[in-house]
Fold these 4 entries.
Entry 1:
Amino acid sequence: MGTDVAEREFTGDDRVRFRRQVSRGTEAIARMLADGLFTDQGRPPEPLLGMEVELNLVDEDMNPAMANATVLDAIADPDYQTELGQFNIEINVSPRPFVTDDTISLEQALRTSLNRAEERASRTDNHLVMIGMLPTLTHEHFAHQWISANPRYDLLNRQIFAARGEDIEIDIAGVPLSERHAGERLRTTTDSILPEAACTSLQLHLRVAPEDFAAYWNAAQSIAGVQVALAGNAPFLAGTALWHESRIPVFEQATDTRPLELKNQGVRPRVWFGERWINTIFDLFEENTRYFPALLPVCSDVDPIDEIDAGRIPALDELRLHNGTVYRWNRPVYDVVDDRAHLRVENRVLPAGPTVVDTMANAAFYYGLVRGLVESDRPLWSQMSFNAAAENLQSGARGGMEAQLYWPNVGWVRPDELTLRRLIDVADTGLRAYGVSGKARSRYLSVIEGRAITHQTGSAWQRRAVLAREDAGEDRARALRGMLRDYVTQMHEGEPVHTWSV
């Protein structure tokens, strides 16, 4: 959805033309793979770390601030952009080399940029929060009026509701805050897709050679459950204690274009883990074309096959726009830079925050683990069913460190034990293969190790902090605001979340 789309109405002819163009784009991908037209074919690309970090805005009282236009004007930095909700912005971190100590340099640059943005935002009496889900959001903040001003967001909202034909229902049964508490449940309906905006993410991009894409995507799918269990940071929404990583079910439900009847028929959801391991990136683009109708059928007159025949690299605008409205947790990305095409895996399962060093640790663990798994003697995904990986994602998001995950040659295991006994070493091997220095590997993997030892993720800390405040006599709303204020304080202090006190 990075493309600006003008506000308009779509006709049946628009949809037919768009379907044809997306199909031609899929044919073009197959042709480019066969003819070796991707710049990285036959050789691994330079290791680069790229990321997008979504941020929330709050006022002085820790309530959501519907002020992204004002804040972006104050920040005045093209790296910061709007997001779906007026209480969101996003920073795009330009790709940097992923070798030696460059990851530490990236950490320092990201911290400097966020500190500068916070200082400028504070002049408008607003503040940035790096968190998976803003705990002070309530149902009232999902009203249509709070969609960001860019026309593409309202157009996307209207197209989802046109496809669905009825209001969106959010229905999530939560995990009890403690043994003496019953599980809570959030049931609400909304006439906008703004609950999606509550899901603020860390999105990691990994550029890969076309022949290696399937292995890296399969590896990323394999570890999704471990990722969310170790990094959960989204336990509350609308005053309700939900999952450790509530972004997963909220995002799945908030952008669901299917009414109940289509769900019952087994129609695939647009927020999708997938249904099988793949052999080539073409498998994913073909599935997107085959299974999902257009949401934003904006067409050009450029035929991508004609572009290839003329010796040019096609932009594939329609395929890329369509791909941006199929919300895979690991998304395939086709991009063209300086007239050279390349492919990326976009990892979308992680929440934002809590701190910059936690963010870098999550990134390092992901990059190292997928590289280590890809280069292992026997592919992990050849030893487990795809359904097991999908169930791991749901289990890890729901239970956090207490989840039970399936792992080949281990069976059912908690994520902390799996990480400490096996995955830290695999991630270290993968980072070493990239050329990351021992200093950087130790810095970031020690953060992951610390979370596994203490069982304290961002989500676990939030849940404990709210429980302590409620035990001291505060009601839920006051406890959430107080917890968030303490969270922001420790976020700025910058120590990793596993060291935070309640």
Entry 2:
Amino acid sequence: MFDFQDLFQWDRFITPTIIKTFYWLVIAVIVLFGISGILWSLTAMAISPFVGFIQLLASIASIFVGIVLSRIAAEFILIVFRINEHLGAIRDRDGGMH
């Protein structure tokens, strides 16, 4: 985890430690919006069954697509920080020859 002092110092990145929390928050929001879309589509089925069914399929698909895209975004952020760590290790190993 990170200390409160890490927020005011630039020696260490805090994003890699809190990205998982933000990922789960995004998942929760995606699922809540998806459930809202499913309920909305069920009420739309009373007016037009075909349109409501299409909205139902779109809501379910959007949940899965949102989860996958949020995972890809979180992994991309972590990869950028990991690249930074590896470049720092390479720099330290070479001893700053350049």
Entry 3:
Amino acid sequence: MKHLKWTLALAASLVTGAASAEISDNVVRVGVLNDISGIFQDTNGMGSVEAARMAAEDFNGGGKGIKVEIVYADHQNKADVGNAIARKWLDVEGVDAIVDVPNSAVGLSINTLLRDSRMTFLASSTASSDLTGKACSPNTIQWVNDTWATGNTTAAAMMSRGGKDWYFLTVDYALGKGIEAEAQKYIEGHGGKVLGSSKHPLGTSDFASFLLQAQSSKAQVVGLANAGGDTINAVKQAAEFGIQQSGQKLVAFLLFINDVHGMGIKVAQGLQLMEAFYWDMNDDTRAFAKRFAARPGMNGKMPSGNQAGVYASTLAYLNAVAATGSDNAKDAVPEMKKFKGKDKLFGDTTIRQDGRVVHPMYLFEVKKPEESKYPYDYYKLVSTIPADQAFRPLAEGGCELVK
């Protein structure tokens, strides 16, 4: 597996003192592992690499002259490929932390590989809630989203607005199944009904038969438990079938600003979605987004929540390295878990003992074309889910780290 390397010379001096003995090879290497060529290339891809580089630049040696190197590779949405890259980074190339990793199957595989190693897993885009449940690891921090939060908070928000009957279009792998299971549990536990579900393969281009089944179900809400190109294709074809025009609500459990941009606001208008980050929320998010958009190769694109998560988690890890003088997970991860405060991109933030980063979540609706005033002005805020309600309670995850 070929991958490119890019090095930041963040300080003229070498690491000195106690840190010299603790930071392996006198450099902290962070590996961005994601989908560079497939359906997640816009929401992650090279944008995540740029976000990691921004974090390294802003870290600026941590006041201790610590040097940082960013490397990256494409896992091709294959667990065996991702695992091979991670093993090479661990055993041969001296990478200290892996960040990003969209695709739950890949993320869970790497979580197992890195458990009890010296490497930190910053699972900023891995959505499986098992990472803070039965598969929890002392080496893993999960930042942006997970299937529990996605399923429960989205279902709760839609049901509070009258959406009692549901039909699911679900991608047939860990991500989709996890989202649907969590949402169904919430829906049925709060007086709603799931009228049916259609499973589709990753990378589906034709959703006609699935959408016809959803339409004929007469469900009030059609839930898209998929991501990336699958969600874009489903939304485009739902518009052609007149799903929303016929009175059904279309909700995307895992959609990002890049996806809305790709399908166009005319097609996406009225779509409901849950996000942890929106570039136009406040002065801090706008400042970050404008810097990101000006980066090489970004061509004015605004960052997704996943790309914002790469930045935030990478910077948090580097700050923990500076605080402890060590890039070993056994030192850095416990230091990260001490954080409780305001993150510039995600708001009020706490990092729990199970590795879950807790922050608010937001239900948005995509604006009508005439409501959008400037590029990427796509969302209007419907409701805010506070941090203490947005994620599975700590005691209910079954993680041995909190027992």
Entry 4:
Amino acid sequence: MDCRLGCGACCIAPSITTPIPGMPDGKPAGVRCIQLNEQNLCKLFGKAERPAVCGLFAATDDVCGSNDSEALWLISTLEAATN
């Protein structure tokens, strides 16, 4: 599956425990990443300072669903189940 540009669910729903430029302590689940622009695109995409965990994320049907709202719900549910 290809990532849906402008979805942003993977930059909002999960917690990230490693530093992000502008968020030195990472980010809690459900908090919008400071590096997500107004179009829900990553400002760090393709840059060395992008956290490794972000680069490892792969869009799949079971995680991203069929639309942006479903992706946010699915990733939030997975995040809650792993805490």
